[in-house]
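Write out this protein's structure.
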Amino acid sequence: MTSVSLSLIIPAYNEERRLPATLAEVTRYLGERGQPYEILVVVNGSTDRTAEVAKAAAERDPNLRLILTPLRGKGRAIKIGVGESRGERVLFCDADLSTPIHEAVALADQVDQRHPIVIASREGSGSRRLGEPYTRHLMGRGFNALVRLLAVPGIQDTQCGFKAFSRDCALDLFGHQTIPGFGFDVELLYIARKRGYPIRELPVTWVYRASSRVDPVRDTVRMFGDLLRVRLNDWRGHYE
């Protein structure tokens, strides 16, 4: 039986500027909750001082661990973090905290036997998207429509970077995950559907960060390729 209630995984690629404030906010909030937790910062192939920043934070907080990998890819980083985690519930979040930490942790609070997967949604009643350029939003909605058609019908937002799982569910899903990049979200939810896990969406507040590395055109093309890869993997029996 694990003594850790929550494992928070933060993938970090070249985040030396944003990471200090993020870790300060996250450790403050989780510490005030009074429940056993761990923070796993997975630094994947960074070329700046992200690793040094995370290491300094880990030296100050025994609940924080630094995991280093030379391999890039958000999906790969989170998979490594899940494999190293010890919590009863597993939550991953973006390093820019585009959704407030209290709303992100609220996802994990809703995880139970009936709801082993709870994901953030920027669409639908109760959600708020702040500061996002209209063209970016429009392209995102187009991609989501394609995802609903080809992979996970009924899910309004597959790409928000805040998702929570029960421990057993996380280990099962990430054990079958193959896509290393941004398309891993779709693959993860596709595997969940394939393996019979219910998925619950909760509305969140999401703030657009102008320094985001997401390129709507380039990444949409890449994720379309990942969609095709997911269907091919399924046809080959990889998700059985």
